[in-house]
From TrEMBL:
Keyword Transport: yes
SMART domains on file: PhBP
Pfam families linked: PBP_GOBP
The name this protein goes by in its record: General odorant-binding protein 1-like isoform X2
Keyword Transport attached: yes
InterPro entries: Odorant/phero-bd_Lep, PBP/GOBP, PBP_GOBP_sf
Keywords in alphabetical order: Transport
Family: Belongs to the PBP/GOBP family.
GO molecular function, one term: odorant binding
Length: 116
């Protein structure tokens, strides 16, 4: 969970294949991947819409993920490819001004911790 919290920090490094595997596992758990380990567009759209401001951001975010997937489609190892897609997605969100702020992440983290 700590890795995911730091994901949006500017100095976060996308170096460990295991993180790609963890993202893959988490994405599969939420039914966000197809059988070929690519984004399931419809399910991802619904998942994003379940968050605050998701209705506004879902189409744009799905498009950004799709574009990143296309850039890294040649990578055969699912964990490495998903890690590269995550890195690309983060950069795209930052360039488009839709990356969450640290304050927003802290609030989410606290709410998640309190709900356990």
């Amino acid at each position: 969970m700590e890795e995911f919290f730091h994901f949006w920090r500017d100095d976060f490094k996308f170096e460990d294949r295991e993180l790609g595997c963890a993202i893959k596992c988490m994405s599969a758990h939420y039914d966000l991947l197809t059988d070929s380990h690519r984004m399931h567009h419809e399910n991802t759209d619904r998942f994003i819409k379940s968050f605050p401001n998701g209705e506004v951001l879902s189409q744009q975010m799905v498009q950004l993920i799709h574009e990143c997937e296309q850039q890294h489609d040649a990578e055969e190892d699912h964990c490495w490819r998903i890690l590269r897609v995550a890195e690309c997605f983060k950069g795209a969100c930052q360039r488009h001004g839709i990356a969450p702020t640290m304050e927003m992440l802290m609030a989410e983290f606290i709410m998640e911790a309190e709900s356990r």
